[in-house]
Write a structure and sequence with these properties.
With 332 residues, the chain is of the alpha/beta class. Helix content is 40%, strand content 19%. The relative contact order is 0.13. Bound molecules: nicotinamide-adenine-dinucleotide and (2S)-2-hydroxybutanedioic acid (LMR).
C-alpha cells in the first residue's frame, strides 16, 4: 500500500479550512500515511497561508509530509489523491453590495470556480482521485466540476455528511440516545433546504427509525425543517457559516471513503446518479453510500422509501434539475 497521500485543499485561508487542515495530518484521518498538503487560495490572500504553514510546523504532526501553498490550482493538482474543494463564497456575507442570503444566490457567484478547477483535476489529478466539494451550492458545483473534468475514473462528491451528523444529533436527543447509537442517517437529494433527511431508515440503537419514532407530526414539522434549516440557524446565531462542524463532516467523509463500511451500514454523500432510486442520470444527488473492501464506493441500493419519503425526495430532485438547467452555460 502507498504510504503517502497528496491532498489539495482550496479556500485554505478560510474558516472551515482552519479547522480542517490540521485534522488531515493528525494521524486519524489517513492513519499512518504521510500526508502531503497542497493548499490553494486566491491571489489576494495566498500569502496568508505562510502563517498557517508556520503553525502546522509548530504543531508537531508526525504524519505531516510536504506542505506547499499556491494560487495556481493546476500546479497544486498534480498527482493529487484527494481534493477538498472548500474555496468559495459563503452565505451571510455582503458580496458586491448585496447580502448573500440564499444558497441559490451562490450559484452564479461560485459556479464558475468549478469549471477551471474541474478541468485541472481531470487533467492533472490522479486517475483514481476523490473530490469532495464543500463550497456551496455543493451539489451543483460538483456537477459543474465533474463535467469539466471529463474523467470518469475520478469520484466527485458533494458533502451531505454535515446534514447527516446534524440529523443524528436531533434523533439522538429525541430518543435519549448517544449520537453514536444513530447510524445510516441518509440525506437524500440536495445540500439545501429541500434535502430529505430520512429518519425512517435511520438505525437507532439497531432499530429502524420508522419503528422507534411514531410521531409523524414531529418528523414533518420539527425534525425535517430543523435539519434543512440548520445551516441558516448557525449563520443567524454565529454571524458566520458553520465551520468547525463542516470541517468535522469533511473529515468524516474522507474517513468513510478510506475505510470499508461495516456490513449493513452506509454513509451520506452526494454522487452522480446512475439512475439509482429513479433519479435522472448525472445530477449529483445525496445517496446512501458504502465503501467496499477494495476501496470502491457504491450506492447502497436496497433502501426502501415510503410514499412520504418519495414525495419529499422528489422536491429535492426537482431542485437539482432546475439548478442543472441554471448552469447549462457552464457545460461544454
Ligand atoms: P470563508 O469565506 O471563511 O473561506 C472561503 C475561502 O475560499 C476564502 O479564504 C476565499 O479566499 C477562498 N476562495 C474563494 N475562491 C477561491 C478559489 N477560486 N480558489 C481557492 N480559494 C478560493 O468560507 P467558509 O466558511 O470556509 O466556507 C466555504 C464554503 O463552504 C462556503 O461556500 C460555504 O457556504 C460552504 N459550506 C458548505 C457546507 C456543506 O455542508 N456542504 C457547510 C458549511 C459551509
Ligand atoms: C451549512 O449547511 O451550514 C452550510 O451549507 C452553510 C449554509 O450556507 O447553510
Amino acid at each position: 500500500m502507498d504510504k503517502s497521500i497528496k491532498v489539495v485543499v482550496t479556500g485554505a485561508a478560510g474558516q472551515i479550512a482552519y479547522s480542517l487542515i490540521p485534522r488531515l495530518i493528525d494521524g486519524n484521518t489517513f492513519g499512518d500515511k504521510i500526508v502531503d498538503l497542497a493548499l490553494v487560495e486566491i491571489p489576494q490572500v495566498v500569502d496568508k497561508l505562510k502563517g498557517l504553514v508556520m503553525e502546522l510546523e509548530d504543531s508537531y504532526f508526525p504524519q505531516m509530509g510536504k506542505v506547499t501553498y499556491t494560487d495556481n490550482f493546476e500546479e497544486a493538482s498534480k498527482d493529487a489523491d484527494w481534493f477538498l474543494l472548500v474555496g468559495s463564497i459563503p452565505r451571510g456575507i455582503v458580496y458586491n453590495g448585496k447580502k448573500i442570503e440564499e444558497r441559490s444566490d451562490l450559484l452564479s457567484i461560485n459556479g464558475g470556480i468549478f469549471v477551471e478547477q474541474g478541468k485541472a483535476i481531470g487533467s492533472y489529478g490522479k486517475d483514481n482521485a476523490k473530490i469532495l466539494v464543500v463550497g456551496n451550492p455543493a451539489n451543483t458545483n460538483a456537477f459543474i466540476g465533474k463535467n469539466a473534468a471529463n474523467n470518469d475514473n475520478q469520484l466527485w462528491m458533494a458533502m451531505t455528511m454535515l446534514d447527516s451528523n446534524r440529523a443524528k444529533s436531533i434523533l439522538a436527543k429525541k430518543t435519549n440516545n448517544n449520537v453514536s447509537d444513530v447510524k445510516n442517517m441518509i440525506i437524500w437529494g440536495n445540500h439545501s433546504p429541500t434535502m430529505y433527511p430520512d429518519s425512517e431508515n435511520a438505525l437507532i440503537s439497531g432499530d429502524l427509525g420508522s419503528s422507534v419514532i411514531n410521531d409523524m407530526n414531529w418528523i414533518e414539522s420539527e425534525f425535517i425543517p430543523n435539519v434543512q434549516q440548520r445551516g441558516k440557524a448557525v449563520i443567524d446565531a454565529r454571524g458566520a457559516s458553520s465551520a468547525t462542524s463542516a470541517a468535522k463532516a469533511a473529515i468524516d467523509t474522507v474517513i468513510a471513503c478510506e475505510n470499508p463500511t461495516e456490513p449493513g451500514n452506509c454513509f451520506s454523500a452526494a454522487i452522480a446518479s446512475d439512475g439509482a432510486y429513479d433519479v435522472p442520470e448525472g445530477i449529483i444527488c445525496g445517496y446512501p453510500l458504502m465503501t467496499l473492501d477494495d476501496g470502491t464506493i457504491e450506492i447502497k441500493r436496497d433502501i426502501s422509501l415510503s410514499d412520504f419519503a418519495k414525495t419529499k425526495f422528489k422536491v429535492s430532485i426537482d431542485e437539482l434539475l432546475s439548478e442543472r438547467d441554471a448552469v447549462k452555460h457552464l457545460m461544454k
